[in-house]
Amino acid sequence: MNSIPEIWKELSESMDFVCYEHKTESEPYFIGYLSSLIDEQVLHRDILGHLTEVSNVSLDDLYNLIPVAEKEMSCDSKIIQNNVLQGYVAVQLGSQNYHTILIKASLSKGRKVTEPQVEFTVEGSKDAFVESLDINLNLIRKRIPIPELRVKEITLGSASKAKVAVCYIEGTTNKQYVNTCIQRIEDVEFDVFSDITLLQQMIEDNSNSIFPQTVGTERPDYVSWALSSGQVCILMDGSPTAVFAPVNLGIFFISYEDYFLPWIIGSILRLIRMTSVVFSIFATPLYVAVMTYHGQGISNIFLPTIISSRINVPFPPVVEVLIMELVIELLREAGARLPSKIGQTIGIVGGIVLGTAAVEASITSNFLLIIVALSALASFTTPVFRMSATIRVLRFPFIIAAQIWGILGIFIVILFVIIHLLRLTSLGMPYLVPFYPLRTSDMFDSVIRSPYSKFHHKFSFFRSLNPIRFDKKKAKLKEDINE
């Protein structure tokens, strides 16, 4: 390395920066790149191989000779540095001529497409998003091979320079949702975006709410369904999660696997899931309220059992419940943070040992232990992790209110939650739609999973520009499509 052009001086401070000088009869060529980001086969085959074959050609001629699709020419030092930092090879003619050819030769390293790790399903496809944006877009385009699928790229982060892709279907997705989403992403100012979950929190309508207003998924088939329904999808390079919006509250309790099963079975599983969520939230608060204020409401059949289980417990019901809830949360966090095999063992053994020891030590009653265990199991039925975490946190205000005011306190907290949900929106769409505002035509796939013969129209609250999925009149002529 005899000399380094002035425009590359800052990059030359890094040990992985390489500057190669190729001498010609006139001015030499300078080739600069970061070896840690470059695919050596592309570098030697498509770039260096052509430079050694030519001499005394202009930079414009060399630009046309290099057989790489993604290339550009620039004299802006910031553009040159940013491109080199993203895996481009810079070719400059002479050390003082700032016009530089930038050729993409980035090395893509990452894991291969595997089965979903979080949203595993028995039925349906087995591929999941990975950390490569190009691969994730490929998984979506394979499922929606239409020219109307649009992808808008945005770069975020003053330090990370993360590539964000906003996907939607032209002529289907409402432009207001697209423009709102793009504007919020472009208005975000932050230095490092290591994962799309950071951006997900920043673009939500109310970032102070514990209720998520966007859905994150690792399933490309789920994203394809959302795009066809008129929603906007966001992907980020380096993140294996896709985020789509707008959403309503009901989407968080719908598993995409429901659509792979017969509609009766899918509806029953969906009702079980929603019932489990209600039980998970209100089971322990009702225990505190009944034991503290409303003992007369206990049936005579259960009264002797409850009295005998609590006769040696020194704590009031609220302390007893809080201790058990905190123990469950500790076991859950310990199991999640440890390696998978050890975490499963800790969760099972810890639950059995601590539960048995707590009952024998009279710290808690065996009746409450059953309620807390069922409540913890019920919270796992929520398909979306962020909503599952919301339900876990939501129990504690209900428990405190039940201790202060009994069942009246539970209804007071319910009132505050409903008021908050009524004011909540997702990209401007009401969070409780189709129940508020009431849209009876959209009830068909909210509480139960309707048969596909009823899916002739998309949800109206997405305000899709193409709301029809199939012609209802023509479908009646083909009875075999009905479930």
Task: Walk me through the structure.
This protein is α+β, with helices and mostly antiparallel strands and 483 residues long. It folds into four domains: 6-104, no CATH class; 133-247, no CATH class; 259-430, no CATH class; 451-481, no CATH class. Helices cover 42% and strands 12% of the residues. It has a five-stranded antiparallel sheet, sandwiched between helices. Strands 6-7-9-10-8 form a five-stranded antiparallel sheet, with helices on both faces. A two-stranded antiparallel ribbon has the order 11-12. Helix 8 (263-292) runs parallel beside helix 13 (385-405) and helix 13 crosses helix 14 (407-423). The longest helix has 30 residues, at 263-292. The radius of gyration is 29 Å and the shape is elongated. The model has no long low-confidence stretch (mean pLDDT 84).
